[in-house]
# Entry
Amino acid sequence: MSRVRKQSARIPCKTCVVLSLLGVAGAIALASADTLIDSTEPKATVRQIMPIDDRENTGGGGAAAADGVDFSRRFYFGAGAGLSRIEPISRSDALSVGDESDSGFQIFGGYDLNRWLSAEVYFADLGAAEIDFLGSPISEIDYQVYGINAVAYLLNSRSGFGLSSDPKQGLWKREGLSLYAKAGIGGLSNDSTVNFDQDYKVHVTFGAGVEYGFSNGLALRADLTSFDSDAQYASLSILKRFGTVAESSTLARQPETVVTESASAADPTPIQPQPRAEPELVLTNQFAFDGTAITSDTRAALDAIVREERDSDSILIIDGHTDWTGSEDYNQGLSERRAEAVFEYLVELGFDASRLRVQGYGEDRPISSNDSAAGRADNRRTEVYKR
# Structure
C-alpha cells in the first residue's frame, strides 16, 4: 500500500474479462501392415489385418495409445494490456486523488503442473493515479506490481470440472474454454514527485478469468485481478505454450489375427480368404452443437448393447461424425472425440477394449443436408456397428 504523505494512497487496478475463439484439433493417421509366414512344410498363414471400417479404408481419423500417458507439463509466456483503477489514500484534506483510472500492460510466464494447476510469475505496470492539491493536479504516483500466482483451472467446456474432469480431453491439453481462479503474493514499486509512504511492500493477489486454448498452443485470456486493497486491473492477454501434448484420449487400434490353412509344398496355390460380412448398424446417437457429452438415452442404449454383446466374439466399430460448421481440421478432431466418448463409456461398462474400433470422419459423411438446423443436428452423431 502506498501513502501520500499527509495522505495515504491505495492504488487499485481493474482486470477485464475477455472473449475466446474456436480451437482447432489435429488428426493422427494409421496404416495397416500384412505379415506372411511360409515354408516348404504345411503351415498356417498368419495375416495381420488392421481392422478399420470394413466398408472403406479411410485415413485421417487415426488414434494413439492412451494407456500410461502422463500429463504434458509445458512452459508458457504471455503479454497483455488493460485498464486499472488506483486509489491512494490521503491523510490530508488538501491532498486528494484526482483521476483514479489509467491503462496498463503486463507480461507473465508460467508452467503447467497438472491438468488443473499452473504456477505463474508476472510483472505489470498499472499506470498512475493523479494527485491533486486543493483540487488542482500537482503530480502522479506510478504503480508497478510483480509476484507469483497459483492458477487453478476450475471448469472446462470439454472435460468438465478441473479436479474430477476427464484427464484425456480439455484441460489435459489446455484446450477449449476454461474458467480459472488465481491467488499469490508479490511486491509493488511506486514513483512520484510528491512525498509518499508505502505501508506494505508486499501484497496479496486474487483474481479470476476465462481462457480459451487452441490446439497450436496459443490461448486468449480475460481476467480481473485485485492487488491487495489498493488496485484492480482488468486485462486481455495472449499466451503461447511450448512443447507437444502426449495423446491420451484415443484408443490404439488392435490388429486382428486371421489364421487360414496354407497350401502344402506340393500345392503352392494360396487359399483365398472368405469375405467377411458387412458390419451391422446397431446404434446412431446425436450430440449437441460442438458437444461430446453422451445423453441419458444413449447411455441406456449402450448399456443394452453391452449386456447383449459382452460375452460374444463380436467387434464394435464406433464412427464419429460432425456437421460442416467450423474448419475441416477442427471437425476431424471433434468427430474423433465423439467416437472416443462412446468408446470410454463402453469400457467403463466392462466391455473389452480390444474388441472396440474407433474412427472419426469429420464432416465428410453427412446423412442429411447441412443447409438446415435439423439436418446439421442429424449429422452431429456417432454410429456403432457390430461385426
Notes: The domain at 2-21+71-242 is CATH 2.40.160.20 (Porin). Helices lie at 296-309, 328-348, 373-379.
